[in-house]
Amino acid sequence: MMLFTAISATILLVIAAISEAIIDIISHNYYKSVFKYLKNPGYWNPEWSWRNKYKYGDAQFGEKFKYSTTLLVCFTDAWHLFKAISKLTLMASLLLIGAQFGLTVYLIPIFIFSKILHQSVFHLFYTYILKAPLN
Hints:
Number of domains: 1
Distance between the termini: 48 Å
Number of helices: 5
Radius of gyration: 18 Å
């Protein structure tokens, strides 16, 4: 059971890191990312996608659908979707670890390992995998 928990928590941390890499690459380097090739820039490019929350893409007309600016904002664009995935998988990972080990001396080394793994996967995806090839 402990091995299953460790593997599950690790997978969740990897998903969180990939999600955060996607958030940062589309926010800061969209035009240098693999996402610029996708067919729907209105969903992927945060310069435009924030408008998806509103009727006619304009805040003055109100929400596009009920809770599209709050509870259900993760269904409006890629940035919000991957932010929600990142938060949920990170919390789930920590809950799994906490449930398995409780408050023991293992939590500090597990936290350090989790942070190193998370940052390493984030760096790998943000710096290498999600960058578009140079023309």
